[in-house]
Amino acid sequence: MSKFTSMTSRTTASGHKRSGKEALVSFFKQIGVQHSIDKLTFVCIGTDRSTGDALGPLTGSYLAERGFKHVVGTLPEPCDATTLMQRISRIPADHIVIAIDACLGSSVDIGTYICRERPLVPAESVKGELPAIGHYSIAGVVNANGPKPYTLLQMTSLHLVMNMARELAEAAQEGFRLQTGSAGS
Questions:
Q1: I need a surface site. Which of 78, 134, 149, 182 has the fewest CB within 10 A?
Q2: What are the CA-CA distances from residue 22 to residues 33, 53, 75, 84, 116 (Å)?
Q3: 0.90 exceeded by pTM
Q4: What is the DSSP string of 40-55?
Q5: Longest Cα separation, the chain
Q6: Worst-scoring range by mean pLDDT, 11-25, 31-45, 116-130, 153-167?
Q7: Angle at 46 between CA 148 and CA 171, to 5 degrees
Q8: Cα Rg, the chain, nearest whole Å
């Protein structure tokens, strides 16, 4: 169990923590206590070509709009399977990485987040082979898992994904106690 979970989260049968906005804020606050925002990089993984997989680049765009200085993966410049290695190679070695990606889970967990003090493995649900990334990770459950993950990601509600991305960015802003446009100032 991660020390960054709160009472608003619940544990699934697999032992993963699922949480809502309050737990996200707490997660970001705890990271902020341990690390300078100037040495944090958000890596928001996904593509703008798939509704479900757009959680990362949408979140990255919202984080950049709120003034976070070190964001990899936005709508104009997604960090996807083809660009991930090149994009992460440019992150300064002394930075702490918070990786954000969409995932599939059980139907009761749609709209929740898995917050961990460890890396995430991008494209795991679609059997991709990408390296683990992040010192911390957040996976947003955007749809229920099933036999055709690519199809499920394509058929995911854009409204849900946009709301989750906004919630992630708002929680980061609140957790790091930033005014809009003030990150790294």
A1: 182
A2: 17, 23, 26, 30, 15
A3: no
A4: EEEEEB--TTSTGGGH
A5: 47
A6: 11-25
A7: 115
A8: 15
